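Lecture notes, continued. The same structure-token format from the folding unit now serves as the input rather than the output. Read the line below as a description of shape only.
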């Protein structure tokens, strides 16, 4: 069964975005030429991306859609949100009611819960997240949007040093 993996970057003080929701503080895609944090292989192992509407709108401002080969589900309460991209689908229901559709869409690959904080918290509270990959960037923001997920239902299984003092922590859901 496909796993739902929250793969997100956070500052050392646990913010995933600045006070305005910005992520300019994150290193760019080309900042890790050796792909030491494994993002390239992670993207190869997923076929579906899940995100909230705030993350979706922000990503639209980055330019060309970065995942043309991935089916993307956007959870939103906004009924007027549309896309010309056939790979982008909008869901207006509770994640618990939609997770089986999402898992079936993923087939034999995993699902990337991209963000944001509110959707991640909803998935966490509904026990939908199977794995967390948290990449800690050596930057302190002081304030902003926190991930606010307790890790009590997860075991830390690895801490991998990446480029430029970045640490990637991998957590797996405990078998309860």
């Amino acid at each position: 069964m496909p796993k739902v993996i929250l793969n997100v970057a956070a500052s050392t003080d646990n913010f995933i975005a600045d006070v305005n929701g910005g992520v300019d503080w994150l290193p760019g895609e080309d900042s890790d030429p050796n792909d030491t944090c494994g993002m390239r292989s992670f993207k190869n192992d997923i076929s579906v991306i899940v995100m909230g509407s705030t993350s979706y709108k922000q990503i639209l401002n980055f330019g060309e859609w970065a995942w043309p080969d991935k089916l993307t589900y956007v959870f939103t309460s906004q009924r007027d949100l549309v896309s010309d991209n056939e790979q982008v689908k909008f869901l207006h229901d509770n994640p618990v009611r939609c997770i089986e559709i999402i898992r079936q869409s993923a087939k034999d690959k995993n699902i990337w819960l991209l963000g944001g904080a509110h959707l991640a918290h909803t998935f966490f509270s509904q026990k939908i997240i199977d794995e967390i990959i948290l990449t800690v960037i050596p930057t302190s923001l002081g304030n902003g949007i926190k991930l606010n997920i307790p890790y009590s239902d997860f075991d830390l299984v690895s801490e991998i040093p990446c480029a430029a003092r970045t640490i990637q922590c991998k957590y797996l859901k405990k078998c309860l």
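Point for the exam: The two ends are 18 Å apart (CA to CA).
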